[in-house]
Amino acid sequence: MSEALEGMNEEELAETIANAQKALETKRRESRAETIAKIKELAASINMDVELTEKGRKVVPMGRTGTKVPVKYRDPANPKNQWSGRGMKPKWLQEKINAGAGADDFLLPEFKPQQAAA
């Protein structure tokens, strides 16, 4: 076989390799199908149902997709400092609170509670 390969030019070798790869893929698919059929047959023989999933392929659960939460707090001294109000307080806000300010001082107007008219 190696003598036959040595006598081939690059084009013939590439074609032979491509044909061999196709044949290998066909054999793998056939072997896989036979194995799956055997597994299902064995499962059916003991009144079991089997669902097969391919290894290495992760099933991503359908769920929430990181929706943006509006900013509720903003530092007037540095507008880049902002916080949605969820999770831990950011360092900039905690420092301001430790310095004597209240968190409500940084709350955006649209989120401030309405004052009842007297």
UniProtKB/TrEMBL annotation:
Domain of life: Bacteria
Positions of the DNA-binding protein H-NS-like C-terminal domain: 63-108
InterPro entries: H-NS_C_dom, H-NS_C_dom_sf
Alphabetic keyword roster: DNA-binding
Example GO molecular function: DNA binding
Region feature (Disordered): 62-88
Signal peptide bounds: none
Keyword Signal set for record: no
Name used for this protein in its record: DNA-binding protein H-NS
Lineage, broadest ranks: Bacteria, Pseudomonadati, Pseudomonadota, Gammaproteobacteria, Methylococcales
